[in-house]
From TrEMBL:
Listed name of the protein: Myelin protein zero-like 1 like
Ranges for region Disordered: 208-235
Compositionally biased intervals (Polar residues): 224-235
Subcellular location: Membrane
Lineage per the UniProt record: Eukaryota, Metazoa, Chordata, Craniata, Vertebrata
Keywords noted in UniProt: Disulfide bond, Glycoprotein, Immunoglobulin domain, Membrane, Signal, Transmembrane, Transmembrane helix
Organism listed in the record: Neolamprologus brichardi (Fairy cichlid)
Amino acid sequence: MESKWPDTIRKRILFTGFTLCVVLVTRPTSAIEIHADPEVIVQNGTTGILRCSFKSSEVVSSATTVTWNFQSSHPDSHFYKSPYVIFYFTSGRGFPGSDEFKDRVQFIGDINKRDVSIQLSPTYFSDNGTFFCDVKNPPDVTGTQARTELRVVLKESYSQNNTTFIVAGVCGALLVLVLIAVAACIVMRVLHNRHDYEGCTSLESVNSQAPQPRKKVESRVEGSRSTSPSGPLQV
């Protein structure tokens, strides 16, 4: 009996290990979702807000990391060929990356609220390009990084863009009002025509019933004629 105990224990250990392997392999994994504004337009020399948030099934911890990268849209920039790290966040602290952004990037989000937004101030024309936001929340580390196109424009261009948006909004509202007015006129006209048609139908029915009393009068006249003597008078 004593010689069988090691075999029994060994079988239990092997079975437990196999079960753990199956559980770990078949465990469903959910990808982290990262969201950012598709485009941000700012005036040269002002502050630009690059918003980014994420959704994860795991609890946020000190192991959660945030990485912001930048790739310039100017071919003559050394940021043009590939993205460069401009900001890194881990263990509740932020670390600037490239020297060009060292004193201009500030973390303004709240990692516990899953907000990892940054602030860029002041903005320069050289900042035109794509900013990438990437978040890792172990063990939830798979996901697609979000991207934001930053456009730094002159004051005149910024004002012109705002004016264009306002004019477009007003024109759209007026178009909707015109369509509503046209639809209301069509409905009222249809109802009015239907009412006139019903009035004509009722009038025709009344007129068709009006000649009936004449037939009664004619019948009385014919009756009086039939009762009058038809022969000559005798003296």
